[in-house]
């Protein structure tokens, strides 16, 4: 396939998932209206918070499904939408835990409801608490409905149970990752590189890559070995992706990523970069700046210089490449058809292409 | 049946549900251990937070099921356990929203994790936030697993879908009630009696009475009319129960209820009593005391006197009786067998017996 075809396939998949989610939210809003306009408005806010994303997880489900010979793309879109809803639930609650009120440049659920309250003259601390309270409710609704989208896929019997098991495992593992992330934030000693990798694997890679790929493969009726191989690919590429994401959050080109390279440093995000740097004496010079809410662009430059001189940037890049290579090795498993390699090779390339 | 038999039936049902939940938590802890001891400890805390309750919702499921002729009590216990897990999830998150760290006299999930942090020397605001963060994760785990307990009941096909629909509706409606409760707390004008009744119906009565009773009836294979009649019974007795609960929270005998009669007044809980009282000029005299964290026993007495003189106590008692009577009317529906009336008549009597 040439690039034009790849984009066309990707667009088609996104549209199919969008259609499933649109029907789900339309149905939910209709039900909610009977319980009052404010409840319907909450569902609208939740729907807005699932829009605008890249539908990354659903596209993983569908890519696995189609490359392994599946043809009922509507069923795959439903399973994909289940993972998208799980993703929404997890980020809405993650934002509550991180006390974030903004996502992708706009207000998230907490932010929307905080802003309504402040506009009505409610003092900020109460308005923030109200925003976070509503976000807990909204996340619960997204979470509770993820299973139901799998039910609506038409998968039945053992197949449905296996898909539920995979979704269950994805959520189970992500909760563990979130717990460890919370624990790192209050612990005296900084996390090690291994701890960060494990946390990122659990918190994000599992439900973003491994789970969706396994679900797509299972839905396609793939053999156990193929499901396992795609799962292993997902686990490793997911970790690589997270490390690259952390690298771009500090060293990226804002024009490329659309993301400031000061934010992660300002919030003191715990990444492989940090875990590596803190073991070097040079880090002491910038330790006080890291995580400072008043961090300036000049401060960020100083921290970046230290991350270079300690070799932390190089280390993280090598680690990302290492995991991407392991992902590729999983992909060359003969249990997988060439179509799967053709489908996912660009994913490996894009991760590798984003590190120097 | 005499009282002794009733207690024996109730104990048997509770044990059956306890067994299902024990197996579920044992399984989850085993899975969690592989992801690290702190995650396993979180599951233990969650299990502890589901223990010690009256298994009220499961017992409703089983009472409906057995009185309508169902004989697979293990299946009913699984469906009941699903509602218990939903209940756990909702109260764990409700406590986060209310910033409560205690339940039934002991630390809840937030409280347990706050206390671990303060013991480790973490400052209180950070420790509290950590407690609440972990409670969000714990509630998510309970919520996400409720469906799965229905799956494990052995119910399949359309039956399973109908049970999922009922559980779904219970959660859907409770989220609306929680939203309105949050909205009342920041709104300038106090809620009306009708708004309070509607909020309590949505937030608690639906998933505590109506849903469990419908689920038990559906699992027993009851006809639509019987399911609807039990649902109507549940809706009305659930509202009556909530109003009585609110009455006992202010006027109850602490030796009987095991609950302080100052707590609700101190936290300014929005109840039918309050909604009625605020429409009377006498309320102005105690308005400043209501909801004060420093409320004394003498202040509470003054508020109680006003609630008597405004007729608010009498009004709430009459309203509770009215809903209990409506519940009884639903129960005399000929679509229901005598066994159902025998089963639930004591529930009506116990609600009526708790008001003067």
From TrEMBL, chains A, B:
Keywords noted in UniProt: Magnesium, Metal-binding, Transferase
Pfam families: polyprenyl_synt
InterPro entries, A to Z: Isoprenoid_synthase_dom_sf (IPR008949), Polyprenyl_synt (IPR000092), Polyprenyl_synt_CS (IPR033749)
Cofactor(s) needed: Mg(2+)
Family assignment from sequence similarity: Belongs to the FPP/GGPP synthase family.
Protein name (Swiss-Prot/TrEMBL): Polyprenyl synthetase family protein
Source organism: Herbiconiux daphne
């Amino acid at each position: 396939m040439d690039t034009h075809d790849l984009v066309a396939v990707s667009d088609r998949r996104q549209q199919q998932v969008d259609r499933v989610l649109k029907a789900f939210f339309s149905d939910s809003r209709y039900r909610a209206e009977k319980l009052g306009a404010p409840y319907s408005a909450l569902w609208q806010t939740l729907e807005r918070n699932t829009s605008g994303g890249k539908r990354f997880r659903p596209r993983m489900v569908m890519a696995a499904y189609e490359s392994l010979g599946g043809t009922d793309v509507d069923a795959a879109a439903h399973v994909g939408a289940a993972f998208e809803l799980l993703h929404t639930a997890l980020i809405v609650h993650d934002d509550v835990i991180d006390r974030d009120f903004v996502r992708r440049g706009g207000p998230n659920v907490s932010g929307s409801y905080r802003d309504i309250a402040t506009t009505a003259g409610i003092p900020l601390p109460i308005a923030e608490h109200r925003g976070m309270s509503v976000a807990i409710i909204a996340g619960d609704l997204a979470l509770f409905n993820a299973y139901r989208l799998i039910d609506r896929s038409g998968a039945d019997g053992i197949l449905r149970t296996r898909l539920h098991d995979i979704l269950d495992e994805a959520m189970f593992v992500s909760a563990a990752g979130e717990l460890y992330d919370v624990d790192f934030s209050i612990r005296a000693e900084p996390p090690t590189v291994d701890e960060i990798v494990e946390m990122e694997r659990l918190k994000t890679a599992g439900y973003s890559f491994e789970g969706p790929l396994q679900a797509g493969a299972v839905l396609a009726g793939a053999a156990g070995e193929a499901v396992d191989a795609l799962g292993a690919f997902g686990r490793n590429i997911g970790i690589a992706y997270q490390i690259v994401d952390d690298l771009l959050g500090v060293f990226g080109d804002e024009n490329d990523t659309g993301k400031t390279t000061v934010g992660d440093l300002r919030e003191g995000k715990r990444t492989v970069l940090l875990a590596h740097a803190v073991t070097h004496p040079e880090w002491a010079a910038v330790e006080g700046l890291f995580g400072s809410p008043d961090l300036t662009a000049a401060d960020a430059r100083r921290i970046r210089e230290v991350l270079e001189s300690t070799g932390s940037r190089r280390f993280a890049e090598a680690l990302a490449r290492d995991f991407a290579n392991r992902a590729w090795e999983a992909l060359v498993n003969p249990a997988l058809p060439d179509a799967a390699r053709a489908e996912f090779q660009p994913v490996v390339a894009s991760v590798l292409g984003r590190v120097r």
